[in-house]
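So, could you explain the following?
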Amino acid sequence: MTLSKFYLFFILSGISLAAQGQVTVKGQIVDGENDDPLLFAQVALFEAGSENTITYTQSDEQGHFSLDTKKGTYDIKVYLLGYENKKISSLNLKADKDLGLIPLTSEGKQLDEVLVQSSTIPMRTDVEGLVITPEQNLANVGGTLLDILRNTPSISVSEDGSISMRGSSGTNILINGRNSSLSQNLDQIPASAIEQIKVINNPNARYDAEAEGGVINIILKRGEDMGTHGGAELTYGTRNRLNTGARFNHTTTKYNVYAGYNYRDWKNRGERTVFRELYEDNELLNQRTEGNERQQTHSMNYGGDYYFGNNIISYQGVYNSGLQRETNTLYSRMEDSQTDELILQYIRENQESETDDVFDNALIYERTFDDKSRELKVSLNNSYQNQYKTQNISIYRDASELLPENLNGQEKALTDEKRYITVVQADYVHPVNEKVKLEMGLKSTLRKFDNDYKYYQLDSENDFVENPEISNRFLYKDQIHAGYFIYSRTGKKWDFTLGTRAEYTHVEGYLFNTDDLNVHDYINLFPSVQTLYKVNEENIFKFTYSRRIDRPTAWRLNPFPDITDSLSVRRGNPNLQPEMINSLELGHMVNWEKASLTTNLFYRHVDGVLDYITTVENGISYQQPMNLNTAQAYGVEFIGMWDISAWWNVNGSVSMFQSKVDGSNIGEEFVSKGFSWNSKITTDFSLPYALTLQLVGDYESPEIEAQGRDYARYSMDATLLKNFMEDRLSVSVSVRDLFNTRTFGGYNQSSSFYQEFERNWESRIALVSARYNF
């Protein structure tokens, strides 16, 4: 139905009602346990005994609703997520009628649905981890998924965008619960497109066993409220940064369609420095890289749901297209530490352009049952990414200035990378009785990553000639076939879930240049345990255990070197084996009237831990991943939420943990241990003139690596928000990294060298944003 026909329908309906005698039915939707009003409940009026919708609405902030119709006999149905559907049958409306209180019954809360939460802050905790609602955190306005994760407890984001949880860099990032190529480009997913983020520190057998740190599930917006809704936003910031987008959805009792578009034009610049000393060779190396970049991204997500009988068929699609341009100028100078004699100096200017296209499509079938706790879901997902990069490199040997007359070398590189991911999955939940539930499922994931890298050098005849010793093509394939079974039992005091997941893995890594094929096959079992003890309504204890795996990624396996910097080379290792992880967590959740506190004690043991080891050969440092013996981490985490007053609330977390890395299989110098802690605090103030001020503070202490430490990182963001037009329009002004302190740095050290690095990227950014919802 077009929009014009939609409006015409209601105009004609209004005329008809006036002619036939209009009546009004109203009521108040409340929680059946405490009579608290329930807002946003969907109330629909049907012809009696049929599925033909007459009209619908939703309850307001006090739970009230009102529907106008002609005299007759109707069925009324009430829907609200987290509650059982309510039906009032054969209601004879001869005059206006007030139904009074309509109580809804909360759905039976299973183990993974017990929440400790506060209504005014952007996160809540449950037995598995955290649930984040990005729109309630003002610091995310105009940002991307990476900005949200930077403000999320338990999560750290490094300088290159990689994610770690509680000190572990192995995380499984899902999009709408599925593996997707979108997870390779988190900085291209706008914050405004994200509905919710689930951070699962200790996942059960329902989830892939992949990932040491846990699972991060990104839920994109789809639109579920009945009626027609939408919104638009515009963000403009320093250095002409721009982020704009719009979204729309239309939902009835029969179908739901939605679409969203976002355009992002982001500019940045910064500097990276490296200092290295080789003890035996008496060499001191100082490097400085000046960089600037511009990233333009178009993002679209779209889809729909169709409801027929007890069936739902859904399609979910995402398309991202990005163009990134970078210029990095590297200044290098090497001296003799004893004589200060100049050994070498050069400048390397790299002009890089990268296009990135990602398609993600999913077809989902769901079967609903009269018993709401019974579920069947089958999905087919296909994801494709095409990334093409060109690099034009100018070299100025024996020069300290970037002058045309000093140019004496040119190189060029082309990278064509394609990623294919196909996932087929079926999940079934069967309630045996009111207390016992069985879950089972099958999943197959097929991935192929094809990286073709060509490297050219300018010869004496001014022709670019390919260098076969550097050019390489690496093809990575894997298949992971899994099945799981979970037994859950819930009681008055105790809930527990026991699960086992079996995974068969087949991995192939083929290097075309050398005709080398590496094949790995292995089968693993991954048990999981989750228990919950409810002392009373305010206090809950939990215990979780899981065994997991962290498989080496394709680029870690590719043995060919990355020589962006000829003095610091990164290369992969085709002989890497997966990490095996055992993880335990003991927690306590307490919920007061205006506050809550979650305390988690955690322990993680990793066999075959993967870490980057730096070695120096002939004055060149090589960084390569290797399997070390073990790694251990244990600590405590506090997550608190407090509505201090009507005008002030605060939420945040503090994590403290001791880490130990044992790399004695490589050398005794690769054994390291240390204490680390981090904290993230968000506080909101309601100010006069309906203004809201939000401050977000972040601190991460130095953290150990096998050969050194990362330095401490800390920053603060500030946002001021004003709402207009009954909260449909909001305008905000924000400054990220208010004190310009967000830097990345660290050092590596062995018996033969010391290396230190620091990166200062432009992180203090001022933004003005406007958002309108209808």
Notes: The CA atoms of residues 267 and 294 lie 4 Å apart.
